[in-house]
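Incident log, structure service

09:12 report received: a user says their structure output differs between two submissions of the same chain.
09:20 pulled the input from the user's history:
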Amino acid sequence: MSLQKTRTHRAFTLVELLVVIAIIGVLISLLLPAVQAARESARGNSCRNKLKQIGLSLHQYHDAIGQLPLGSQGRNSDSARRFNYRSGVIRTAFLIYLFPYLEEGAVYDRYDFKIATNQQTQMVTSPINNRLDIWSCPSDEPFTGQQCEGGNAQDHKGNYGVNWGQYTFAFQSQRCQDERIAPDDCHIAPFHLQFGARFGQIRDGLSNTAALVEMLQAPAEDRCDRRGRIWNDEAGCYQVMFRFPPNTAEPDVTRCTHRPELNLPCQPKSNFPQDEFISARSRHPGGVHLLLCDGSVHHSADGVDVDVWRAYSTIDSEEVINALP
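09:34 re-ran on a clean worker, output below:
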């Protein structure tokens, strides 16, 4: 009589299966932050590269025209004090003048310089009402003006704002509140109302003066929030002040919605350019990217000394500052 051996297959027990699942979960939890960090690093590099391209376009514009583009056209420093605009000058936002140097010549050619930029934000047919990739950081979520202009805004927002000094929209420094000081003597930053600096005016040095810095695109789907509106020259749109360090908990003061959970604190106030300002902000961990007037891009930490931070906003104040990494 022969005995036939039978082969048995041992299955996983429930306990063993749970242990395997737990191990896989631990491995995923260990790998996920590294994957996220790698993705953010790639997004951060993309932001830096875009700022470098913008920096190159600023130099090309300066070579061609002899100065940087006007911070905004159609309103001067005195008009901001008086709550009015210059008559006979079409309001035009800063960035359109860089388009020929950013491979956006077709948009520039179709842009109607006879219509104010802030009016074109309400025109579906305007060439500016398309998302501008080079002005968008992939770390942030893209938005439009949406509920601004009575809910008719079509303009896409962006992430890079111009250096507008260290105080408010109308007054680039506190001393400029003095009525005895002529408004044209108060251009302390490379960009201002009806002003774009010549490199020769930046006596603090191109490598010590900020040109552009990151800002966040604020949601505007339920109510108007101006922050990040690169096509509107009203206060609190693309004019970034160095009043507080990057990603400050201090609220922006402009027409906006208080969203501290999104790093967008706000004290709503509009049509008071003497008081309005917005701060540099980003989605990058620990700081913001900063384009200097020499075309170099640097990272500024959230905890940067406020005096050092403010020194980067001036063109001719002779501060002694430590270089950014």
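09:41 both user submissions now match this output. Likely a transient worker issue. Closing.
09:42 reviewer note: DSSP finds six helices and eleven strands in the chain. Helices lie at 14-65, 77-82, 105-110, 117-120, 148-151, 306-311.
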